[in-house]
Design goal:
The chain has 386 residues and is an alpha/beta fold. The chain folds into two domains: 144 residues, NAD(P)-binding Rossmann-like Domain (Rossmann fold, 3-Layer(aba) Sandwich), CATH 3.40.50; 200 residues, Rna Polymerase Sigma Factor, Chain: A (Orthogonal Bundle), CATH 1.10.1740. Helix content is 47%, strand content 15%. A seven-stranded parallel beta sheet has the order 4-3-2-1-5-6-7, sandwiched between helices. A four-stranded mixed beta sheet has the order 9-8-10-11, with helices on one face. Helix 3 links the parallel strand 3 and strand 4. Helix 1 crosses helix 11 and helix 14 runs antiparallel to helix 15. It starts with a strand and ends with a helix. The protein binds NADPH dihydro-nicotinamide-adenine-dinucleotide phosphate. NADPH dihydro-nicotinamide-adenine-dinucleotide phosphate (NDP) binds next to helix 1, helix 6 and helix 9.
Amino acid sequence: MRRISILGATGSIGQNTLDLIGRARADYHVVALTGAGNIAQLAADAIAFNAEIAVTAHPERLNDLRDALAGSSVEAAAGEAALIEAASRPADWIMSAIVGVAGLAPGMAALQNGSTLALANKESLVTAGPLLLATAKARGARILPVDSEHSAVFQALVGEDIAEANRVIITASGGAFRDWPLADLAHATVEQASSHPNWTMGQRITIDSASMFNKALEVIETKEFFGFSPDQIEVLVHPQSLVHALVGFRDGALMAHVGPPDMRHAIGYALHWPIRRDLPVERLDLAQIGTLEFSAPDVARYPALGMARQVMDAGGLSGAVFNAAKERALDHFIAGHVDFVGMSQQVSRALDVMGPQMADGSDVTLETVARADHLTRQHLDQQVAA
Ligand code: NDP
């Protein structure tokens, strides 16, 4: 029986992971499930999957969690230290699916313990890629990509020598506003930005798809995880979201990964790696689909892509600054303090102001990332208050 834990079990990725685990219950022993505000879901899943422990990130919700678990054998715990303790419990495979930089420390704890980390939390690689990879190497732990584009690149490289790959293309649907007149973007509502043309995901990543901040994170993630240089990484708008990524080789061949827009494919690939198993995803009928379109992204519509280049060139803590600015600007957009276009402007200003301040030669550690994150959020809040 494989021992598994899911960090961020109540979210979109977490629930899709449980869906796969639930189809082969006898194969898995669930160690830990974690969540934050959705106590009812966390408790229901922890009981249904007979988890050893359920953890909420919110200490003030511990009693609610205890009440919801009453009568079961599931242990309850709360707070950041409890999340890290749960992630450190021996497990063969741990899904890292907490949203945001909050996923970094628990993911690091899992790697410290030598567990295989299925990494959906892209913020970990963006803010602390070298630290994460060095920890995995030192502890003999493996990181398996779960983001669909990175799973696609990973799969396209099976049996290949990565040294012979000189190009990688990741695709983007273009998000909710792909076809909107540019002048209308400033008036886009949170509700409109929260509707994705192809994928069903959490609200934050859906809005980040409309702005392409999500794609910007993925570009940085591609550099960090696979070691491609910034000029080898391209983004193409592909409205059908069926080709997730392509890897180009020195002989001119492009290996594409094609699959339905269903995260259970990438999660299932990481769960069963290195073998393939049946997965409950749609089988594509390409004759019916007929057309696959690709176009270059409009840099005026998606300024986040230019910011990704800036971050990759600067290195160090600029990923932490970028991610914090993006997360806080999104909070401000959702709260109605800034419009959709203003969100990108805030992040760009934060990169220009905070980036150089953070480029003080500090190593990327959990502490320096947390400090850069905190100062950047403060900077954005001051901008909004001014
Ligand atoms: P969701 O918002 O759906 O879920 C987030 C999870 O994190 C929930 O379990 C939530 O708990 C928990 N959480 C929220 N805040 C905290 C916190 N401060 N500390 C600890 N846990 C917290 O996100 P997604 O599932 O969409 O995304 C998860 C990660 O995977 C993100 O990094 C995202 O970029 C990445 N990803 C997602 C994809 C998708 O298709 N959804 C695709 C590829 C990558 P609760 O719900 O109980 O509040």
